[in-house]
Amino acid sequence: MGKLDGRVVVITGAARGQGEQEARLFVAEGAKVLLGDVLDDLGEALAKELGGDSAKYVHLDVSQEADWVSAIEAGKEAFGKIDGLVNNAGILRFNELVDTPLEEFQQVVQVNQVGAFLGIKHTAPAIAEAGGGTIVNTASYTALTGMAVVGAYAATKAAILGLTRVAAMELARKKIRVNAMCPGAIDTPMSNPAQLDPNADPTEMSAALNDLYKKLVPLERVGKPEEVAKLALFLSSDDSSYITGQPFVIDGGWLAGVSIF
Ligand SMILES: NC(=O)c1ccc[n+]([C@@H]2O[C@H](COP(=O)([O-])OP(=O)(O)OC[C@H]3O[C@@H](n4cnc5c(N)ncnc54)[C@H](O)[C@@H]3O)[C@@H](O)[C@H]2O)c1
Fold first, then answer.
1. What is the average pLDDT value for the chain, to the nearest integer?
2. Does any ligand 1 atom lie closer than 6 A to the CB of residue 185?
3. pTM, full prediction
4. Taking burial as the number of CB atoms within 10 A of a residue's CB, which of 35, 96, 163, 242 is the most buried?
5. Which of 10, 188, 251 to mutate to test the pocket of ligand 1 (most atoms within 8 A of CB)?
6. Is 139 close to ligand 1, i.e. is its CB under 6 Å away?
7. What is the pLDDT of residues 88-124, one digit of tens each?
8. Which atom of ligand 1 is the closest one to the Cα of 181?
9. Which keywords, in A-to-Z order, does the entry hold (predicted)?
10. CB of 137 sitting under 6 A from ligand 1
11. Is the CA virtual torsion 205, 211, 216, 218 positive or negative?
12. Helix or strand or coil: residue 17?
């Protein structure tokens, strides 16, 4: 028995990183997954590896409403219904606020915030039609605390917590639970770009990240995308049946307080 037997879950940004690990874990737990991303080659390859009975890839730029409409249709056609969503896609840009070009700020809002809104808007009616289900939004520790040079990103992640609470209130009577994850530093291409550089050594970079986070994080290491996937599983399964509208921090204790060690 898997924890997601019989479920059909849309996962955005599923071609790599946390979304990829969520897809792998959800399929292992019995779900069928509709994978959306803009990295079509990677997404197609993952869906193929997971098998056509369990996974389908669609090109889904989360900032584009038309893409959502066709993705939901494709998901229903492939698997008969949709009863879950993990709003995972996101982008990060580094700039102090006074140096941030307006276009960059708007791009981050368009993907992270508008993308999450469109995901809720277009998936919730399908989940309601299926009799209820779950939505998990990926925010960040930067939704809860400040960090220099990620102003646009932090603003969108705080907005995702607002969306989560309102969606939980509005969708509870449709039997849809909505929660958010606030990961700390997680070892994916977003925080470890060496994973994308064929000339770099990602293991060396992971070790460097660990050295950095040893000083900042009580658990003394960077997090793994597989660990965030387990939280997404908890929030998507019946194990969290009485939980909605909440942010869940997964950060190795980073936000717990000021470390003096
Ligand atoms: N890595 C971290 O340290 C960290 C920390 C906190 C929160 N997060 C959040 O976790 C989520 C997953 O990030 P990750 O760490 O796996 O990084 P990642 O960069 O490896 O993965 C992000 C995925 O989103 C996809 N994506 C980007 N723009 C898209 C768009 N317009 N439409 C559809 N897909 C798009 C990318 O192609 C990629 O596959 C993001 O929302 C990110 O903000 C990451």
1. 97
2. yes
3. 0.98
4. 35
5. 188
6. no
7. 999 999 999 999 999 999 999 999 999 999 999 999 9
8. 7
9. Lipid metabolism, NAD, Oxidoreductase, Steroid metabolism
10. no
11. positive
12. helix
